[in-house]
Amino acid sequence: MFENIGEIVLLFWRTLLAMPQAWRQRDKIFDQFFEIGNASLLMVCVLSFFIGAVIALQTGPVLVERSLPNAVGGVVGIAIAKELAPVMMAILIAGRIGSAMAAEIGSMRVYQEIDALRTMNINPIHYLVLPRLLAISIALPMLVVFSVLVGWFGGAVVADLNHRMEIPFRVFFADLRDIVDLKDVANGVFKSFCFAVIIGTVSCHQGLVTIGGPRGIGRSVTKAVVNSIVLIVIFDYILTRFLLK
Amino acid sequence: MSDNENNHHSGVGLVVRGLRKSFGNQEVLKGVDIEVKPGEIFVIMGPSGSGKSVLLKHLIGLEEPDAGEILINSEPLTTPEIAAKYRMALVFQSGALLNSLTVGENVGLYLTEHRLKPAGEIKKIVEEKLADVGLKEAVDKMPSELSGGMKKRAAIARALVIEPQLILYDEPTSELDPLSAVVIGDEILELNRRIHVTSLVVSHDRDLAFGVADRIAVIIDGQIVTVGTPETVKNFNDPRVQEFLNADFKRDNKQPRL
Ligand SMILES: Nc1ncnc2c1ncn2[C@@H]1O[C@H](COP(=O)(O)OP(=O)(O)OP(=O)(O)O)[C@@H](O)[C@H]1O
Ligand SMILES: [Mg+2]
Question: How far apart are the first and last CA of chain B?
């Protein structure tokens, strides 16, 4: 999978150079943006709620047994804001949106639509890659903010209702606020921005290099999703290490 | 005619010399030489797989030649500047309409993306060009709702919008009924007469070829076998050419081409 890293970085660079075209492409950026929101908002909601809930369920009783009930809010808060929301949402979006990008661009490649664009002097990077990359880079961080809030809420509900914790809702959030900083949330949002760039670039690149017919498109979709996820996990470690300083 | 090269309403001359191209170890073009005069209608005929589509892709810059050169009005087509200086259009064999856009948006794409005209004017031009190819009612349809022949005609309309100086048609009449084929043939002639566009037509359609061509070239197995007026080609004394020209007509009806 890494033989293409050079090409992927080059595509990212070319897209950056195309940034002045962004205003011209604003309609397409909005379209993509709303498509991403529409396709994933409900899923983000459900996923985040249960992630928050299960983290509270796993860590809460252990902390309460050791007489650390007021650490529960902090542990759940930090885990979600800095790690789980950005990574899980990125993986969700890689599966939901990255796959769609690779499939759409891949089929345009296979059915010569991209060649047709080129004969009309329309740069596929301006026309296809730039709007997608910008839209996902705006949408994913926003989804992550939303996911963090819903995740905290999920954790708070379980901490309140679970008979092994019984930490009142308000107390949970007071504890959470004691430990979690705005910086921690910003940290997670920044990571998700980087993940969005990875998903967008990897998926668009994979779409553009698609060869063959429908089977080639299928292969591209799988590769786009798998490679995005692997890179997300690797970059998660690198970014966390670097942000911890 | 090459002295008024900046006038968009005149065709450009095209010269291809020693063009070679291989895919893997299959040599598809084995040194192709052609010379198309400004404003000429030049038809290339040849059996399936002889490299016609690959040749057209080279001419519009979608493929890089392994060897040889392509000159547009005596300027080598190697830099994007030259490619951008002259307006060229390719009508793809498959149409290659953008499936996510309506037919109208496809036809107007060149103008909207390059911001060449205000929206109202683009709409008018699109309707006009679609009417030219007999697709007036299909403006708001999606390409997936069109038949193969309608897609081809929409693709021709999309090429016309560019007001090209060199227009390349890849089998413009395959998939068309005889009546529409005549309409397209007339359109090719009419366009050539009206704006003196240089037209390069790749076709199996013998009626079309002999009906519109100023000159015809026959390509077999990646090499030009003969070039000349329709009369000389028809009487060209080479068994492969004769076989192709005479067999082609019968086979065409039985095997609809992609
Ligand atoms: N991108 C490619 N990669 C590998 N081989 C290719 C490619 N494009 C074309 N070929 C090969 O080049 C040869 C010529 O193809 P081309 O499409 O030019 O044929 P054609 O003359 O247009 O035939 P038809 O009349 O059927 O359209 C074929 O053998 C084809 O397999
Ligand atoms: Mg062909």
Answer: 36
Question: Which percentage of chain A shows pLDDT scores above 70?
Answer: 98
Q: What is the ipTM of this complex?
A: 0.85
> B97: alpha, beta or left, given left = phi > 0 and alpha = psi -120 to 50?
beta
CATH class of B23-87+164-247: alpha beta
Please name the residue that has the structure tokens 């291989």. Answer: B22
Q: From the CA of B50, give the closest atom in ligand 1.
A: 21
pLDDT at B71 exceeding the cut of 70: yes
**Ligand 1 binding pocket includes B52 (Cβ within 6 Å):** yes
* Share in percent of chain A as helix, strand, coil (round to 5): 90, 0, 10
**Cβ proximity of A114 and A239 under 8 Å:** no
How far A200 CA sits from the closest chain B CA (Å)?
19
Break chain A into its structural domains and give their ranges: 2-243
CA of B189 to the centre of ligand 2 (A): 22
* DSSP conformational letter for B5: T
Q: Which residue has the tokens 């090429």?
A: B159
Does residue B258 have a pLDDT over 60?
no
How far apart are the C-alpha atoms of A167 and B147, rounded to whole Å?
A: 66
> Cα angle at B23 between B247 and B158, to 5 degrees?
70
Q: pTM of the full predicted structure? A: 0.88
Mode of pairing for the β-strands spanning B14-23 and B67-72: antiparallel
Is B57 part of the contact surface with chain A (CB cutoff 8 Å)? yes
Q: How far apart are CA A88 and CA A91, in angstroms?
A: 5
Q: Scanning the structure block, which residue is given the tokens 């007021």? A: A70
Q: By three-state DSSP, how is residue A68 classified?
A: coil
How far apart are the C-alpha atoms of A160 and A140, rounded to whole Å?
Answer: 30
Show the CA angle centred on residue A133, arms to residues A116 and A202, nearest 5°. Answer: 85
Q: How confident is the model over B154-200, as pLDDT tens digits?
A: 999 999 898 889 999 999 888 788 888 888 888 889 888 887 889 99
What are phi and psi for residue B169, nearest 5 degrees?
-110, 125
Which CA distances in Å does A243 have to A190, A231, A237, B170?
10, 17, 10, 56
Q: B5 pLDDT exceeds 50? A: no
Q: Mean pLDDT throughout A47-53?
A: 95
Is residue A10 helix, strand or coil? helix
Domain boundaries, chain B: 23-87+164-247, 97-163
- Indicate the DSSP class of residue B79: S
Query: With contact defined as beta carbons under 8 Å apart, do B91 and B155 qualify?
Result: yes
Q: Longest C-alpha distance within chain B, in Å? A: 56
| pLDDT for residue B248 | 46
- Cβ of B109 within 8 Å of Cβ of A118? The answer is no
Which residues of chain A does B162 touch, with a Cβ-Cβ cutoff of 8 Å?
Answer: 120
Q: Which residue has the higher pLDDT, B2 or A27?
A: A27
Within an 8 Å CB–CB cutoff, is residue A105 touching chain B? Answer: no
Q: Per the CB < 8 Å rule, is A119 touching B60?
A: yes
